[in-house]
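Request:
You are asked to prepare a plain-text protein record giving the amino acid sequence and the backbone structure tokens, at your earliest convenience.
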Amino acid sequence: MAKGSALRKTLRSRGHRALIGILVAARERAGLTQRQLAARLRRPHSFVGRMEAGERRVDVVEFIEIARVLGANPKEMFEQLL
């Protein structure tokens, strides 16, 4: 990162909370528990728990994978954030 430029911290920001809300709503629409989603992602339960609690960021590749596992369209989900 260039000197003098700074990225805002996004963890627990308004945008981050909106992203998590969209992912939680999609999980609930899919009728899955956190544990079931974690199993389908082949990740530990803590991965989903920490993500939904806002304790970890979700990168774009993870976002796409989660959306697809939930049977949702990642592009439509992302558009909800815009």
The two ends are 25 Å apart (CA to CA). The chain has one domain: 14-81. The chain has a mean pLDDT of 91. Residues 61 and 67 are 10 Å apart (CA to CA).
